[in-house]
Amino acid sequence: MNTTLLKFISLNLTLVSFAIHAEEPKANLDAHVHGVSELMIVAEDNALEIQFKSPAMNLVGFEHQATSSKDLKAVEKAASTLRQHDSLLLMSNANCKLTNTSVDLSKIVDTEHHDNDHDSSSSNHEHAHNDNDDSHHNHDENHSEIMVTYKYHCQDSTSLPSITVNLFEFFTGIEEINTMWVNQTGQGAITLRHNNRIINF
After folding, report:
1. Where are the alpha helices (H) located in 23-166, listed in sequence order?
2. Mind listing the pLDDT tens digit for each residue in 31-57?
3. 47: how many CB neighbours lie within 10 A of its CB?
4. Which helix (H) or strand (E) element contains residue 145?
5. Which of 74, 111, 114, 132 is the most buried (most CB within 10 A)?
6. This prediction's pTM
7. How many helices (H) and strands (E) does the chain have?
């Protein structure tokens, strides 16, 4: 829908402005901050879409490509947890049914590389993992993010009064979630924290 597209554009522009004012002036739009994630919510008629984006560090503890069995298990665990929408996002008086969940791990898991090197010795992978601790050299490592999109069908998405976000309980690396929302009656922004995790519309 054109109106939905315009709302997404408006929401993204507002989120960019929110992030610019929240972070240091020197931060560029490509930068991300460990401990800080983003949540965008768009509601229109019967459709509700929630997009969660986070530096991989917050969710799996690293940002390099996962190749060792230890790293891959961490990614699989995070992906499994992120699919538990009913535990992560508690909707009050919801009447909303999940229709689709998309977990984008492409920045952290190179599936083709992993398949080809599955039988390779783990020593090189572990070495790369250890060297990553002071990694400022690899541009991709410094910008690895995981994105999740939840789509719901609701009786009336704009009547949803609040959402309680429990991501903090499952991912201890998350300290703040910069949240933006928009529906047919308005839009708003809030920074969620451990002790303040409810979005009131």
Report:
1. 56-60, 69-82, 85-88, 111-116, 123-131
2. 567 899 999 999 999 999 999 999 999
3. 16
4. strand 145-154
5. 74
6. 0.73
7. 7, 9
